[in-house]
Amino acid sequence: MEDLGLMDYYHVPRVCKQCGGVMVYRGIGEYQCEECGYEDYDDYGKARRYIEKNSGATAMDIENATGVSQKSIRRMLREARLEVASTSKVFLHCERCGKEIRSGQYCDECEMQLHRTIEEQQRELQRKGKTGYGIREQGDEGRRRFIHE
Ligand SMILES: [Zn+2]
Ligand SMILES: [Zn+2]
Questions:
Q1: What are the pLDDT digits (tens) for 8-63?
Q2: Residue 3: its pLDDT value, please?
Q3: Ligand number with the minimum distance to the CA of 33
Q4: Could you tell me if residue 53 is inside a domain?
Q5: How many structural domains compose the chain?
Q6: Domain that holds residue 38
Q7: How many angstroms is it from 117 CA to the middle of ligand 1?
Q8: Which ligand lies nearest to the CA atom of residue 112 in the structure?
């Protein structure tokens, strides 16, 4: 069993807020519902998007604008998930496979795989009907045509 604790730490969206479908990881903090195409972001994705549009933003600005906690932001900075003017030449290694990486905690492949594991777990939960989310009430059928663009 993989330790997925850190993924939860960043509030990875697992279930679509619109239709209750499984959210699939698209890369750099972005997710898309496999059912209706709704896009959502984890803390990293939210903070990153905000910083892109507001260079020079402080942790407090980010928290106010995105709701991502400063604690979470500081942790991302420490892990170099968020880029600040960096003089560091430290090489990091993927915590899962040991490959050399330039930032973050996992290499791209491992991060992808971890997300695939989360998605599979979520599908399993959905199959068992134990999502714990009471969202399935609205227009699922009408939304299905947006699935495969
Ligand atoms: Zn959806
Ligand atoms: Zn790896």
A1: 668 899 999 999 999 999 988 899 999 999 999 999 899 888 888 887 788 888 89
A2: 58
A3: 1
A4: yes
A5: 1
A6: 5-79+89-140
A7: 19
A8: 2
Q: Please indicate, yes or no, if residue 147 is contained in any of the structural domains.
A: no
Query: Could you tell me the distance, in angstroms and rounded to a whole number, from the CA of residue 98 to the centre of ligand 2?
Result: 6
Distance 80 CA to ligand 2 centre (A): 16
At CB < 8 A and 24+ separation, what contacts does 9-13 make? 9/72, 9/75, 10/42, 10/43, 10/44, 10/72, 10/76, 11/42, 11/43, 12/42, 12/115, 12/118, 13/40, 13/41, 13/42
Contact 50, 41 (CB under 8 A): no
Tokens of 132: 């714990």
Identify whether 84 is part of a domain. no
Domain assignment present for residue 116? The answer is yes
